[in-house]
Design a protein that fits this description.
Radius of gyration: 18 Å
Helix content: over 70%
Strand content: under 5%
Order of helices and strands: HHHHH
Number of helices: 5
Largest sheet: none
Length: 130
C-alpha cells in the first residue's frame, strides 16, 4: 500500500505493524466481499480467493513490487540503485514485511470467514458432534 511509512518501525517491529494492518484489512475486505458474494451467488472459494488477493494487493502491493523489482530488473547504474533504495522504507527488512503482510492477509481473511459467514460455528459443531 503506498502510504507514508515514516511512523513505522524498523525490522521486526515494522513487520508486526504492517502484519496487523494486513490482518484488519483482511477482515474488512472479507466482510465487503461476503456481502457482494451473497448478492451475486458466489461460492466460498471465490469469496476467499478474491479477499486474499485483494488484501495482498492493497496492503502488500508496494513491498511485493519492490521485492520483485530489486530481484529481477537489471539495474545498470549505482546511482539509480541508490535512488530506488532511498524511496523504500527499511529495505533491509523488506522480505520480512512481505511475509508478515501475506500472513496477516491470510489470517485476517480466515478470521473474517469465521466471524461473518458462520464458518467457525460450523467448525466447532463438527468437532463436538463428529
Amino acid at each position: 500500500m503506498p502510504f507514508d511509512r515514516s511512523w513505522m518501525g524498523y525490522g521486526i517491529d515494522g513487520a508486526l505493524q504492517v502484519g496487523g494492518i494486513a490482518l484488519l484489512a483482511g477482515i474488512v475486505l472479507y466482510l465487503l466481499v461476503h456481502l457482494a458474494a451473497k448478492a451475486n451467488g458466489w461460492n466460498l472459494g471465490i469469496e476467499l480467493t478474491i479477499t486474499v488477493i485483494a488484501a495482498f494487493v492493497l496492503v502488500g502491493g508496494e513491498d511485493i513490487w519492490n521485492s520483485f523489482y530489486f530481484n529481477f530488473v537489471p539495474i545498470q547504474s549505482p546511482l539509480l540503485l541508490r535512488v530506488k533504495l532511498a524511496a523504500v522504507h527499511d529495505p533491509d527488512s523488506m522480505g520480512l514485511r512481505v511475509l508478515f503482510e501475506m500472513l496477516g492477509a491470510l489470517v485476517g481473511t480466515s478470521i473474517g470467514w469465521a466471524v461473518f459467514s458462520g464458518g467457525f460455528k460450523d467448525l466447532i459443531g463438527h468437532l463436538r458432534n463428529p
